Amino acid sequence: MADMTGSNVDAKTVLGNKVSGKVAHLLAAIEKEPVPDRLMQLALELQKALNEKLDQPARD
Asked: CB within 8 A of 35, min separation 6: which ones?
């Protein structure tokens, strides 16, 4: 296994923070985008189907 030096850990932490910040920025931008009606309908159908599946008793 690679030896984790202090500077290596710090560099990974900085990179992780930068990536997290970029992801958060992109998610915020995506949330502002309008959702087409058909996509929303499909998402609701999927959610309903998943909820129905979770409500069914497990089969042996």
From this structure: 43
User: Is position 32 within any domain?
Assistant: yes
Q: Of 29, 6, 2, 1, whose CA–CA distance to 14 is shortest?
A: 6
Quick: pLDDT tens for 16-59. 888 888 989 998 998 899 989 999 999 999 999 999 998 887 66
Structure tokens at 56: 């069914």
Return d(Cα 12, Cα 53) in angstroms, integer: 40
Instruction: For residue 30, count other CB atoms closer than 10 A to its CB.
Output: 9
pTM of the model: 0.41
Residue 35, domain extent? 6-55
- Only one residue has tokens 């990179």, namely 15
